[in-house]
Amino acid sequence: MVKGLKAGQLYGYKVRGEYRPEWGFRFNEAKLMLDPYAKAVTGKFRNVDNLLLAYDPQPGAGERLPDSRDNTTIVPKAIVVDDAFDWQGVAAPDLALEQLIIYEVHVKGFTAHPSAGVGSPGTYLGFIDKIPHLKRLGINAVEFLPVHEFYVDDFLAQKGLTNYWGYNSIGFFTPESSYSTRRTPGCQVAEFKTLVRELHGPGSLSFSTWSTTIPARGMRWVRPCVFGGGQCLLLQFDRARRCAAPLLHELYRLRQQPQL
């Protein structure tokens, strides 16, 4: 615990230790790592000149040689967040499973086009403007595609593209920063909470993020980039999968029942 820190403080981790990949040790104090329990991140990770890698990617060398270049200046930082929020007494709707009419939706894609006619297109706040539309359709539950902070794969960034769907999570407790208004660092947290509050408002919708999201994978930089590495991310993913399993099982059971 570091005393005296206030909301808005930026931070990251550096860990000193052995670098012996063959034993599973990949400590590299030149590399700044993200807190896997961070609640907000300053922006998107970009693997500029392979600086996110803990090793020197020489052809044929594997991970044998550590990369001594410091990447502190290019790595997004975790943000200390004030957890206070006015929920205005709103609670989640108490709907039975068989009552749910679920609408699976992409937070950004739902309002990104000008035809959506919202105040902040492609954002958490922009989604709020479309809640009445969903209610008119008879929807009483929304299921968001991944809204965790995700990594844009190198091969996509090199082509000027992005990871639209978000199935490459880098922080499971961090709302995706690009879906915020970016008015202030870390505003994605309050804006996401505002969306949830409005979804749960009187006569409104149930809310879920059941869409299974996958930790950043196939990328050896995830170990030096996130404190605790892929093991921590995979642990959180496994917990989420096991928590969701009973619900998915019940949905399947209900689907098998004869229709009246």
What's the rounded overall pLDDT mean?
83
Output the number of helix runs. 6
Please indicate the count of domains.
Answer: 1
Q: Separation of termini?
A: 58 Å
Give, in spatial order, the strands making up the sheet with the most strands.
Answer: 5-6-9
The share of residues in extended strands comes to: 5-15%
How would you describe what is shown here?
The chain has 260 residues and is an alpha/beta fold. It has one domain (10-256). The chain has six helices and nine strands, in the order βββββααββαβαβαα. The chain has helices spanning 124-128, 131-136, 154-157, 187-199, 222-225, 229-256; strands spanning 10-11, 19-20, 25-26, 78-79, 102-105, 141-144, 148-150, 169-175, 206-208. The strands form four sheets. The protein has a three-stranded parallel β-sheet, with no helix packed on it. It is elongated and about 60 Å long. The termini are far apart. Residues 229-244 have low confidence and may be disordered.
Produce the secondary structure layout.
Elements: E1 10-11, E2 19-20, E3 25-26, E4 78-79, E5 102-105, H1 124-128, H2 131-136, E6 141-144, E7 148-150, H3 154-157, E8 169-175, H4 187-199, E9 206-208, H5 222-225, H6 229-256
Parallel strand pairs: 5-6, 6-9
Antiparallel strand pairs: 1-4, 2-3, 7-8
What's the short version?
The protein has 260 residues and is α/β, with parallel strands linked by helices.
Quick tags:
single chain; 260 residues; alpha/beta; 6 helices
